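anyone seen this seq b4? input:
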Amino acid sequence: MKPVVFGILMTLLVCAGLGWLWYSQQPLEPAAAPVVANQTADPAPDKQLHPILRELPPTGATPKPTADQPAPPTATRLPQLVAAPTDLGQSDEQTRAAVKDLSQLSMGTAEAKPAAQDLLQWLTPKEQIRKWVLLVDNVAMGKVPLKNRPLEFSIAAFAVAGTEQQPVLAESNFNRLNPLVDAFVSLDPEVLARYYRAWSPLLQEAFSELGQPGAFRDRLLEAIDRVLEVKPLEASSIALQRPSVYYRFADPEREAASDLEKLLWRMGPRNCVRIQSHLRDVRLALTQLQ
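predicted toks r here
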């Protein structure tokens, strides 16, 4: 079974995928850790919001934007697509088979394949397609859902640095989601786009069930653009406060940002740049493949 649904669905793993993880900031004791490094970000397609970076520069180096690039080339022989299940309610088994096969088509070096192969173990058991479509719809609004999550991924507890009187966001938080980000950026954008087109009727059906008007494709592009508009953290130290159980950003403007923005900030500048760079390629592949 070729990687069909999950290929397109993983496109959204970053749109908000990881979304529920932002809410894992349990009350914690401050822990020693470096503070956030000063970094810049990656622009949204057709919107020159901020410089395009494929990776963060070394500490102290001046960021140099890269030119717009087409989606990375795929293998000469693209995999044969598999027809979508005829019953949305009975699609989970085929989706899992697609995920397993998708791991064999990951991009990059041999080190990238183990990351992609981890995808299968993170899937929740039921209603995969419906959960991903719901996730995309939420991300397009700048939200991240707490329920009906498509993935389950255990992460370390939220950590803070600084002092009890002046807590700051600990840099150690940025590594908690590395396996998920590694898995996402290993997926081939062109292959994802071709699988999306093959499975789009099923995705549209799930989207229509939400009572939403219009096309799911448009909602997907909205969700991607919403992620691309987020600017990674740029301050050298992100102050926190703990008015009750959970830590919050001390800066009122930052605390008032959308849930999606806060999620990407807590993932760290490097992961944010990697996600946005890969999403740019995915978006380009989606729009070129009509």
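Confidence is low (pLDDT under 50) at residues 1-52, 65-76. The chain has one domain: 5-23+43-155+175-233+269-288. kinda curious what u guys think
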